[in-house]
Amino acid sequence: MIIRAFSTPVLIAFAMFFCAFSYAQKKNADYKIHLFKTSETFTIDGKGDEATWQKAEAANDFFMVLPMDDRKATQPSEVKMAYDDKRLYLLATFFKTPGNTYVVESLRRDFSFGGNDNFLLFMDPFNNQTTGFSFGANAYGAQWDGTMSNGGSIDLNWDSKWVSEVQNHEDKWVVEMAIPFKSIRYEKDVTEWGVNFSRLDLSTNEKSSWTPIPRQFPTASLAYTGTMVWDNPPPKQGLNYSLIPYVLGTVGNSSIDDITYDNEFKVGGDVKLGLTSSLNLDLTLNPDFSQVEADRQVANLTRFELFFPERRQFFLENADLFASFGYDEIRPFFSRRIGLGVPIIAGARVSGNLNRNLRLGVMDMQTEKVDETGLPSQNFAVLSLQQKVFSRSNIGLMFVNKESLDYNALADSLKTEYTKFNRNLGLEYNLASADNKYNGKVFMLKSFGPDSSYNGFAQGAHLEYRSRRWNWRAQQEYISENFTSEVGFVPRNNYIKLEGSIGHLFLPASEKVVSHGPKYRGFYYFDPSMNSTDYVSILGYELNFINRSSLGVDVFNEYVQLLAPFDPTNTGKEELAAGTRHHWNGVYLQYNSRPKSLFTYNMTTRLGRYFSGGYRTNINAQLGYRFQPYVSLGANLSYNNLDLPDPWYTTDFWLVGTEADITFTNKLFWNTLFQYNEQSNNFGINSRLQWRYAPASDLFLVFNNNEQLSPLEGNLWSLTLKFTYWFNR
């Protein structure tokens, strides 16, 4: 408790110290591109033959970011922009050495950044250097779009309505875009936005940016954007609404005990209403998420619940307002808790900017009751506020409420199983220095429930530094025994955690190695009396090659005192007793191949001791082959061998996931994922055909099959046809 009482004020003092020096002019504010309004009618075809483009100002003379950030880019790039009453237009030309081939994985939307020759646009309409929008395309025309948060994070699960086309030539490729103003949010009457342009050319292993960016930061870093200067304020959006109805039919069958499957016909949809140019109201009625990509399974040999990301469209715009509070394992709100095996009746959400410095997020969701289990109908409400301070920092407030309706009518046995209400109230301060080198956080959370057993406290703080050669981080967490977050993600409680890392990079003048250096990271857990319960210390060395491949070697030292009984195989076998102590060492080896190759592979190996004096050998591999740009094949392989004493003996199991991604055009996709998990005796298929027949409007045909293998045999399958259309004004 002494550490908890001492460390928080110290880290707060550090944060406030650095905040005092964080209010400064944006680094690249003097890099400007001027836009003028045009009355010309555009044809978005990637040709750029409109007269407007002959007069538009060009952003060119890009800077190299990788492999080295001390020079100009060797591959010339040029970007022009213009606008009219309804759309923002962009024309980008990327010159290349004749004979260099394009590198493209597929025509799949929201492509992998590192595996494609691509162009990305980053916009900061509120000039807060924290939030924004990203649009882009790869060299064969696949689109990319996402919302930006936390100064440079991009959520690609967000989709918007816009158009683009790409043309390829021997010595260049050209992308042309038209982005409706109604597809983005911005502050009215403002004539300067933050903006930057990024290019990745895998033939030369070169990443470049219009503005200079230190190599330790991504080109998405909003702290390093230039300025988009409008000749007049962007047009007012006026009445801005979208209707996104869907119709679906599903047939299926189940032979698994206790699971029935009924054919169904559903109608529902979403409504988007622009309350202002920067604040949006989202409504959903009888939502369905059958077209969402299947979760990738992982082998779980931990003692705790695993985290899977949110992919449902309704929850994604301004998702950082709701999802970024706290830490990865201290989240007061995790949207996947809503509608997890329970039908959602309806939901509403207001999110966006009230002004340049104040952001608001309000959400309310209502679920149905489940007669089979007695689960009552529940309401989920969330309030989030985020006030910008200094140049890029902010103060956040969050309130989360889960309420069971008609709770008093439940049988007494159900009242012990389900909670009447659970509430979390939190306050946090997020530090981000003007130059992006320092970031940090301090937060506090209080939980409330029907009695004192639900009333607890959680708190955390960290400070991080990143320069060209050095990086370090210090972090501290505390969660009390009674802290309860039923709508959050908190896999463990009643602990104090100290975490630290430090690394250094050498930047040699080499034709093969771009950087290399040592690194250290440690996690140390204590009970509230400061008795050690578990820790992991990792010492490693990494090499990054000029062709973008990398090699890493880590040695680790791990200790665990079990706080509850645990089966070290996680397969339902006998459990180790609570209180037993286990200590082991091991090594990690990792290699990532160069992304330019048609055949790519990433390998990770863990070798070392394990629980109860045993041994664990783990091999993970990601394999890929592309017939560009139409077919991309992939396989994820994970093998675990556990050599343990009696009563477990030797346990080994495979996790195999194979994926075929066929992109007939950049509007017609077919993706099939096969997964076999020997640990859970499960085999699954998810096959999804998507036709984007109009911008943001789709026809889906989705087949799911889930087979439980011996000893719990059975099969569950379904076939869904879903039609969505995006009406907007």
Automatic annotation (TrEMBL):
Record carries keyword Hydrolase: yes
Coiled coil, from the record: none
Keyword Signal: yes
Domain DUF5916: 242-339, 370-727
Location of the Carbohydrate-binding domain: 44-204
Superkingdom of the organism of origin: Bacteria
InterPro entries: Carb-bd_dom_fam9, DUF5916
Protein name: Hydrolase
The organism of origin for this protein: Flagellimonas lutimaris
